[in-house]
Each structure stands twice: as C-alpha cells, then as structure tokens.
Amino acid sequence: MTDGLTLSPGLADFAERIRSAAQALDLKVKDRAELASATFNGGSSKSTSISPTDLPAESHGVRIDRFNVVLGVLPDIATLEAVRETLRRYRNQCVIARSYLGTNETLDLQLMLLGPRSSERQDAWRALALMVERDDRVARKLAWLRPADEKRDEESFTEFLKRTFLARPWVHAEGKFEDVALDELSSGNASSQGLPRTLADEWERIALDENNTPDDIVSGLVKAWERRGLA
Fold first, then answer.
1. pTM of the entire structure?
2. Given pLDDT bands bounded at 50, 70 and 90, which one contains residue 48?
3. Rounded to whole angstroms, how far apart are CA atoms 142 and 133?
C-alpha cells in the first residue's frame, strides 16, 4: 500500500515510464490513489479494510484510457516463497482496486510489477516472472525484468511495452496490407491477390470473434500476417 506516500525511486521511474508511453499515444492518463489504498470502496472501518501485513509495502494506481493499472515491485531475491508472498499481497491490493471499478472496468484491470536490477537475464527470475504472469486471478499480470545496465532500461522497457495494452504493432505494419482488399477475402479470390487461403480464413475468424476487442482484432491480424511464412 502507498496511497499518497512517496514512491520508491524504482516504482516512481516505472510509473513515469508507463505514463509517458501512454501520453505519447495521446491516451488520457489519471492517477487513482484509491486503487492503492487499504480500504474498500465505501468502507472506513477495520471490517472494510485489509491489514497492512496482507498488502504490499508500496503500490501505485493509474487509469490509462479504459484500463486501470496497479503498479508494484517484485522482491529483491529470486525465491519462490518471496515471490508467492508478494503476489498474494498484490492480489489483495487488486481486490481492493476492483471495489472502486465498474463491472466492465474490472475486466481490464492490470497489475504490472517491476523486477529488481539485473533480473532480466537471470533464469531464476525468468521462471518466476512466467509464474506471475500465468496467475490470472483478480487481474491480468505482467512483469518487467530490468537489465543490469541502466543504460539499457529504455530498450528493455520498450520490449516490455510490446506485451502490454500500450503496444501498437499495427503502426509498424502500416502499408503492408494496402494491396489486399479486406472486403474481398470472402470472395474466393484471396489467392489471386497473393494472400494464402489459410491466412484469409484466420483473418475472417479473428475479425468475427465477438469476444475480441478492436485492439485484439488488429493485433491478431498483424500476428497472423507475420506467421504466414512459418506454417
């Protein structure tokens, strides 16, 4: 829990990087201190709050576009017990955060955790980060494992962003699809346009999936295009 307290240098830097990346995309950014509080929405007593011993030492809440994000830090040591305990506390923090969100907002709640310096290339940390990210309880989770050299932070953070909702792969793919009319995919002429039939079918499946958001659709189309020569 932080809730208005000064953030540690590492978490403050992480929050500023996230904020700057969102602003560069012209997304609206707003700090939400209540997401990092110890008290549930509408509560003011012990029965409506969680003990500090069951919450992380620090966290920060922010809203970016439609996404609400809780930012936090992983422990300094790469042990299963320490990471599990940290993850437990941040799940509790996310439970509190969800009490301040609407039903649809809770679906987009994200937990982003900062790894310690030099964790990027350590096998132990990579395995633990995968465990964290596979835990889908309460919120989606992502971990940024930092490099040993601070000069590589920008490069490493950029790679981390590619796995978040702030990724914009279609920006780099601009112009790649200009010779293929998407409205002709179902006409049976995809192959004559230089587009494999299997790829056309996959694009149609992605586009018609009602569970996909617009971002999911575009990202799925780009990834399918990139895989076309690997099949």
1. 0.73
2. confident
3. 5
